[in-house]
Amino acid sequence: MASAHIEEILPGRATTRLVPAVPAFPRGDALPVRGLLRLPGVYRPQADSCLLASVIRATTVPARASALDLCTGTGVLALVLARTGAESVLAVDLSRLALCSARMNGAVRRLPVRTRRGGLPTAVTNGPYDLVAANPPYVPCPPVTDRTLMSCDAGPDGRAVLDPLCEQAPALLAPEGQLLLVHSTMSDVDRSRELLEAGGLRTSIAAKAVVPFGPVVSGRLEFLVEHGFVAPDARDEELVVLRAQR
Ligand SMILES: C[S@@+](CC[C@H](N)C(=O)[O-])C[C@H]1O[C@@H](n2cnc3c(N)ncnc32)[C@H](O)[C@@H]1O
């Protein structure tokens, strides 16, 4: 059996310079990563996870709220949702190893985190939710041929998961529900807002931060530069958390 990795992100590891007039970029301790179980190949929480966690923590969660962590990975954001007051949290991911990690991370902390394997249709079927958090794949990539990399596939424009998610967001949300969605400006934040607003949702920018390239962007740098997503001399990208509500 593959061995598990115990991950610990040291406070400050993901910090970077701040963008003025938005909530301060979260310190590393915004995420409950101490003792986080992460099975091989599962996404290690990064600056995007951290930024979204800070927005969840600053969001008022209604009593008895049901929450969804779509694209859960280790389940780290499901843990934040549960600790912020959600009564039940559903963690959804395509990856078995991710779900196994998320299930164990919830169980050892005795938090109300359930898991379901699947994508957006699974999330819609089990909804609606008062609060939805999503950190989906969003970094543009060349066509994926290796099945083991499928779960990182954001498509050549970065929108393979973002477009259907934004289009179907209204179906995920309870009447007073809200979606918190993080992605990079390189994957077209305006397009996300257009799609969400076309579905009758109001959108706003809940937070943004400029962060050094993480491992996903660094691993695709040649493709990203070649296709104009990243300037040749760039070393960092801007992350945005969108809030969408009725
Ligand atoms: C960027 S990681 C985020 C993980 C975690 N939420 C975090 O912030 O650390 C994206 C996750 O989405 C999953 N994923 C990719 N495509 C998906 C899809 N269409 N539906 C559900 N999950 C998907 C991947 O397996 C991966 O665990």
TrEMBL record:
<keyword id="KW-0808">Transferase</keyword>
<dbReference type="InterPro" id="IPR002052">
    <property type="entry name" value="DNA_methylase_N6_adenine_CS"/>
</dbReference>
<dbReference type="GO" id="GO:0102559">
    <property type="term" value="F:peptide chain release factor N(5)-glutamine methyltransferase activity"/>
</dbReference>
<dbReference type="GO" id="GO:0032259">
    <property type="term" value="P:methylation"/>
</dbReference>
<comment type="similarity">
    <text>Belongs to the eukaryotic/archaeal PrmC-related family.</text>
</comment>
<feature type="domain" description="Methyltransferase small">
    <location>
        <begin position="49"/>
        <end position="188"/>
    </location>
</feature>
<dbReference type="InterPro" id="IPR007848">
    <property type="entry name" value="Small_mtfrase_dom"/>
</dbReference>
<keyword id="KW-0489">Methyltransferase</keyword>
<dbReference type="Pfam" id="PF05175">
    <property type="entry name" value="MTS"/>
</dbReference>
<keyword id="KW-0949">S-adenosyl-L-methionine</keyword>
<protein>
    <submittedName>
        <fullName>Release factor glutamine methyltransferase</fullName>
        <ecNumber>2.1.1.297</ecNumber>
    </submittedName>
</protein>
<dbReference type="InterPro" id="IPR029063">
    <property type="entry name" value="SAM-dependent_MTases_sf"/>
</dbReference>
<dbReference type="InterPro" id="IPR052190">
    <property type="entry name" value="Euk-Arch_PrmC-MTase"/>
</dbReference>
<dbReference type="GO" id="GO:0003676">
    <property type="term" value="F:nucleic acid binding"/>
</dbReference>
<dbReference type="GO" id="GO:0035657">
    <property type="term" value="C:eRF1 methyltransferase complex"/>
</dbReference>
